[in-house]
Amino acid sequence: MSLSKPVMPLISVFLVLAAAPAVAGPVMDDIKATNSVVCLVSPSAPGFSVPDSKGVFQGFNADFCRMAAAAILGDAGKADIRGVGFSDSMKTIVAGGAHMASRSITRTGTRDADEGMAFVVTTFFDGQGFMVSKKLGVSSARELNGASVCAEDGSTTLLNIADWFGAEGLTYRVENIADKTARLQAFFSGKCDVYASDVTALTADRQLAPNPADYVILPEVISNEPLTLVARPDQAFEAALFWSFQVMLNADSYGVTSANIDEIVADLDQQPPAVKRMFGTDSATTDMAAKLGLPKDWAYQVVKQVGSYGEVFNRHLGVDTPFGLDRKQTPNAQSADGGQMYPYPIR
């Protein structure tokens, strides 16, 4: 029996499928129809997302909302950034009330398995810790036996507390308060001995105290918290987010910034191949644009309007900010510097 006849039809089908561009899904269609990216952030997280004097959110997380708008719509200003509490943010995504969230949501196995949300790319590697008043007189979390702990309802914080205190043989009592403002008020007023959250969130929240110097963050980091962009499921939208972030990481690796990108593009023939593939007029990113339904210059717009990853980190969290973070001393350093920010190849 001959098996040769189906070969040409199969090859034809393969060629058609290989040449076909990715079809935009309902989320990408909605973004283009409304000409905006609805993006959820924390309503008050200094360094990550805080409204300025005009009510416009500024911060590390807010800039990834702008990244999405710059890539998809060509205008970072078309990010509709809204402050929403933690528990409500994921519910809003699932209900279709927003396109994405950039607000320190930890990617976990059970969350990833839930329908209605797609965990796309980790923008910040963090870990959970504890903040206490200096009046409490402790220097280690192992001295917190019997403490009352203010924590966030619906977050991984409660599970981490239970795991760590149990492993250490310590007792504790949780003040489970969903609203962040109320939770901080409870802690600063002395209702709780301890405030538990991600270490960077603790650093931000300490700035909201009447006198930040009265509080100290204990040295123990008790968990791994990969803080990840969350989107409504849509293959084209998820790819646009993921690869926009990779453009920011690659730009960081090659020293391309919002300040020098025009100079680099003007002298593109003299740039490394990887830079040409990002910003050339007939390049990997223009091929991706055709397949994902993005503007041809989407990669340029991301860096020009938002910046490289290093720019965003340093602008909001770096050594010249109240956070004073040396990126090279964190897991968010470039992989070449021993960190976990590993740029994927754009080719």
TrEMBL record:
Residues 36-264 form the Solute-binding protein family 3/N-terminal domain. The keyword GTP-binding does not apply. It comes from the Bacteria. Gene3D superfamilies: Periplasmic binding protein-like II. Keywords: Signal, Transport. GO terms for biological process: amino acid transport. InterPro entries: Bact_solute-bind_prot3, Solute-binding_3/MltF_N. Residues 324-347 are annotated as: Disordered. Residues 1-24 form the signal peptide. Transmembrane segments: none annotated. Belongs to the bacterial solute-binding protein 3 family. PANTHER family: AMINO ACID ABC TRANSPORTER PERMEASE (PTHR30085), AMINO-ACID ABC TRANSPORTER-BINDING PROTEIN YHDW-RELATED (PTHR30085:SF7). This is Transporter substrate-binding domain-containing protein. It comes from Ancylobacter pratisalsi. The lineage of its organism: Bacteria, Pseudomonadati, Pseudomonadota, Alphaproteobacteria, Hyphomicrobiales.
